[in-house]
Each structure stands twice: as C-alpha cells, then as structure tokens.
Amino acid sequence: MYRAAITGTGVFTPSEVITNAELVTAFNAYADKYNAAHAGQIAAGDLPAKAHSSVDFIVAASGIEQRHVIDKTGVLDPDRMYPHLRARTDEEPSLMAEIGVDAINTALAQAGISADQVDLVICAASNIERAYPAVAVEIQQLIGAGGFAFDMNVACSSATFGIQTAADMIRTGSVRTAVVVNPEITSAHLEWRDRDCHFIFGDVATATVLQRSEDAKGEHFIIRSTRCATVFSNNIRNNAGFMRMARDQMEDRRDMQFIQNGRKVFKEVLPLVSQHMADHMADEGITADDLKRLWLHQANKAMNDYIGKKVLGREPAPGEQPNILQDYANTSSAGSIIAFAQNSDDLKPGDLGIICSFGAGYSVGSVVVEKA
Ligand code: COA
C-alpha cells in the first residue's frame, strides 16, 4: 500500500459579486411585482403574498455577506431571477469543464506537475450539467490527462467523498496521480425567488491534486485517513432529472430547484457531523489537542461555530476554524476545499487538521491530514 498526499489545490472564483443589499433589493422588487400581478388571488386568500427579504436576517441567520456568481444580471433582474448562462454548442467546452480546468491548472502548478501525469480525474459536484458524456471525461481531454475519469455526486459532500475515492485508488496502486475537481454552478439550481433560501449559494470551482506521497515535490499534506457516511433524508432535495418529460413535469415547479427544510437540517446534521468527527478522531487516535485546524463545510456560521465547539470541546481560537462563507456563501462541495486552500500554508510539519464536508443525503465526509 502507498501513502496518498494532497500536493496542490486550486480555486476559481467568478469575478461577479452580489452583495446582500443588491440581492435583497432585487428580491423585494420581484416580490412587489409578484404581489401586484396576483393581487386578486392574494386578496381572496387563494395565494400567499410574498414577504420581503432582509439583509439583517441573512447575516444573522447565516453569516453570509456576499456571493460570487458566474452571471449577476439575470439573478438581479426582477423579471427573470435566474442567471443568464449562454447555451453552448457541443463543440465548445461546457461551463463546468471550463471553470474546473481553471481550478485544476492552479492546483497542478502548486503540485509542480503537468497534466499528462494525471491518470484519474473525478468531477465531484452537487449537480452535473448534463447526463453524459461525463464532464470529468471532457476535463480529462481538455487538460491532456491520461487514465480515466468519471463524475460523482454526493451533494455538498462530493469533494471529501471524491478525495476518499481517489486516495483509496492511490493507496492500492490503481492510479498514481489524481485530480478531484468541484465545479459548483449553484446559481443555476438555487431558487432565487424563495426568500427562505435565495441568499444561500454562490458559484466557484475547486480542485485538489492527490499523489503518492513519495512523488510529492513540494509542501504537501499526508492523508492519514478518510471516513464517509450517509443517512437518507428528504430535508434537502432537488427533483430535477431525466424523468421530468416522461412524468409531464415540464412546468415551472418549485421542486425542480434546491429545496430544504433549513431548521430540520440544522437540528439533524449537527449531531451527525459532530459524532462522525469524534468517531473518526477516536479511531485515528487523535484528540482535540492534537488538531491545529478544522476546515469545515461552509453553509452556515452558527453551524460551524457549534461543530467547532463540539469537536474541540471549547471555543475555537481565531483562525483555528476558518470561515470563508461570509465572502463566498455556501459553495456546496467546494466550501471546505476553499477554506483548506486559503488557510493551510502556515501549518508546520507534523501539524494535523480535518477537512469535513456535509449536506444533502444526508452525507458527511472527513479527511484527516498531516502536514509533511
Ligand atoms: N428575510 C427575512 N426573513 C426571512 C427570510 C429572509 N430572507 N427567510 C426566512 N425568513 C423568516 C422565515 O419566514 C421565518 O419567519 P416565521 O418565524 O414568521 O415563520 C423566520 O424568518 C425564521 O426562518 P427560519 O427558516 O426558521 O430561519 P433559520 O434561523 O432557521 O435560518 C437557514 C434559515 C436556512 C439559514 C438555517 O436554517 C440553516 O442554515 N440551515 C441549515 C442550512 C444548510 O446547511 N443547508 C445545507 C444546504 S446544502
């Protein structure tokens, strides 16, 4: 068995930013128009009026201050409320492939290797923009990698599940160098017309290079162990899919976008994740005092504060559990990797940390890493 290591990470951040104030102004304009257009039904009690959103609520409930998106004009247009993402021909790179390749190039440069050394590409994301061919295979071709590639979807946990999959293949020797890429175009499956969730997501792509530790050229993190778990829940769900036409469900349906029972998610996922991390640490023989950093999934500040406190048994010190969600919002599977990519350079050889992501499924994945 070989040892697997993370030798590079990359983050592609879209240039367009939507602040909470911009988001709320657009949503409230949309709500006013909707209420005016449906005034009769609302007055008759046949339809609930749409209530306004509020910046103060968003910050207090989530900690999110802004989000990056591929296109803000469509999202902020009260007559549209969805991004404009140009339809591409089959001969053009798909959008997920394009932003994924950008993140991969940064990650490969950090690892000091070229793409032709890669023999596994996993595209792990919460939505894949088409059924087939796999976006991962397109990315493999665009970067000039060898070997094989496939897509996988474990919602917000896709990155850690992808890392476990790649690390296991490296350990056994079936691949030598892998890239796990997480292009998250969450703006296309968020329901921007629902104030309960319209502030939650942002777009981004992350990439992680994994190699045999003996191949690492520069600073790297040994993957000490990984652990994944799933428990079925309907509390975060998206019913869009290939059965839609056959089921005569082509109309504008709320359940074809992201939908969640946020309160239940909050209540049920916290104990699941805290226990998962505690069990993983116990099996690995490490205690809270051994940990230098937690790079958690970036959905909600209060959730991360709770998990950090539970896992460490005390309030996390500043920087011990870095949040990026105030700038990026929830970027689904990419969140914990952004936190890791932007907050791991200062660790010293022997320092330990845990990357942990969690979300729909429910699913939770943790990766114990040690700075080499
Ligand atoms: N502006 C103003 N008020 C709002 C609002 C908005 N944008 N959205 C909801 N509200 C209202 C609600 O209607 C509710 O009003 P009510 O008490 O009269 O019914 C009130 O604010 C509280 O709403 P609630 O949804 O209970 O808020 P919350 O404190 O639970 O926060 C979430 C909402 C989504 C931020 C929170 O539940 C959460 O983060 N959950 C976990 C989400 C998660 O991690 N999901 C994973 C996604 S992959």
Question: Can you characterise this structure?
Answer:
By secondary structure, the protein is of the alpha+beta class. It is 32% helix and 22% strand. Strand 12 and strand 13 (363-371) form a beta hairpin. The relative contact order is 0.17. The structure holds coenzyme A. Coenzyme A is lined by residues 53-54, 57-58, 61-62, 156, 195-196, 199, 236, 260, 262-263, 265-266, 299-300, 303, 330, 359-360.
Quick take:
The protein has 372 residues and is α+β, with helices and mostly antiparallel strands. The chain is built from ten helices and 13 strands.
In terms of DSSP E residues, the strand content is 15-25%
Tell me the series of helices and strands, N- to C-terminal.
Answer: EEHHHEHEHEHEEEEEHEHHHEE
Alpha carbon gyration radius: 21 Å
Count of separate DSSP helical elements? 10
Taking the alpha carbons of the first and last residues, their distance comes to 18 Å
**Secondary structure: helix percent:** 25-40%
Average pLDDT level: 97
Could you say which small molecules are bound to this protein? coenzyme A
Structural class: alpha+beta
Major β-sheet profile: 9 strands, mixed
Shape: globular
Number of strands: 13
For the biggest β-sheet, the strand order reads 5-4-6-7-1-8-13-12-11
Outline the low-pLDDT stretches. Answer: none
